[in-house]
Amino acid sequence: TLNQTKGKGQRGNTWLSEAGKNLTFSIILFPHHIQASQQFIISQCVSLGLYYTLNQYITNVSIKWPNDIYVNNKKIAGILIENVLTGAQISSSIIGIGLNVNQENFDSMIPNPTSMYLESLQKFDTQKIINECVSNIRIAYSRITNDIANIQKEYIDVLYLYGKLSKFEDNNGVFYGTISHINNDGKLHIIDTENKQRGYYFKEVSYII
Question: Model's pTM, two decimal places?
Fold first, then answer.
């Protein structure tokens, strides 16, 4: 859509987008071949598809766990995936994507936004960008059948703050640690400054930038 007025974000947040400037679109998949316990691989494929697209035009792109796209310390894209399960299988996945393309000014209530224009100082053809996003997501998704290990490696290789001492917050408070790895089910592991390994699922820990 060229104008999204009630965009959904993670954690019940909204996704705000200036009409006609950005990309707000959804993709539906029917990944019957993926176990519900392995659904994080879909998130990795979609994130990598957006990463590959943006990396052609701007520098310092990374994936912030679990599936935001960052440029340096600013958010350029968000992904919301809603899976419908049938027993142990995934019957369908609805993937909502918001990508800031040509927007120049953002509401002050948005904490750390950026766009392709702000990072490159050039305007982009949104139809061309959406075609490339869908194509790259399709390519990554098609690799699930026989290339999961490399998908997971590529994801971790471009993960935001991976291997760097960083500041986090969980239910017990603020701490410093280093992301060490991610399980197949999406669980994030952080080794803190006391050499204790902490594991978190989505919404259980947040970055403090």
Answer: 0.91
